[in-house]
Amino acid sequence: MTNETDRRVALVTGGAGALGATIGARLAADGSDVVLVDVDAEGVERAAARLRAGTGRRVEGWVADVSDVDSVRRTISRLRDEFGRLDQLVNNAAVNRRADLASVGQQDWELVMRVNLWGPAVLCQAAVELWQAAGTGRVVNISSRTWLSGGPLAYTSSKAGLVGLTRALALELAPLGVTVNAVAPSMVVTPFTRQGRSEDEFAEFLARHQRMTPIQRLATPEDVANAVAFFASEQAAFITGEVLHVCGGAQLAPAP
Ligand SMILES: NC(=O)c1ccc[n+]([C@@H]2O[C@H](COP(=O)([O-])OP(=O)(O)OC[C@H]3O[C@@H](n4cnc5c(N)ncnc54)[C@H](O)[C@@H]3O)[C@@H](O)[C@H]2O)c1
Question: What highest taxon heads this organism's lineage (predicted)?
Fold first, then answer.
């Protein structure tokens, strides 16, 4: 039986998605109770049920919209009531809009920024009280290789912003014993990357990504979860404000 000092509670946003569910599974396998949150009610309950059965940990699937302050505050307050703590916060929920400069509209831009950047900020803001009480915490923000390489306009801007937020919060939360780091994956095959592409376009997209990756394969959700698990662990207690690229070397931009 786990005693109170070993007990850890993780909250993973976008937990119905491919990466979120795998990250949740990894944290549960490492001994955390896990709350997955998502706007997709059926998906998050399905993912939570799978994890519960697979890991034997307490796993919950809650509906929440990370871009909505009230929804985030309700989530953290429910977490406080039901679990009493938040040891590991993984800001993984995101949306993408593939518009370029010529076509981007304010609505798409604001949606991407609200979910991908404001969401992580407001979750941290709501969780501060729990971290103050505990004197410890881990935040892992899921950015993207695009923050460095460039990519879809609003999405890339939000993921670069998330690196800025990671570094600013690392400084602000360090006195509370909270570390804040980011993981920046290259392309992982999930519905997120398939979205809006025909079969042929998607095949060409995958081949292009594999060609530009020095370690010649694509990233898997488990590759990303391994990096998250490290930042979320005790082993990473003295590391904060960092970005770990999970890209097979694709962040190096080798000469063609
Ligand atoms: N898949 C990739 O190739 C890749 C590469 C680099 C980074 N990433 C990042 O990894 C993370 C997960 O990506 P994924 O591929 O699993 O995507 P996904 O679309 O499968 O999962 C994202 C999840 O976020 C949820 N979500 C969207 N808006 C939300 C909101 N307002 N509140 C709560 N939940 C919301 C969605 O319902 C979905 O379940 C994202 O941050 C993404 O930017 C993905």
Answer: Bacteria
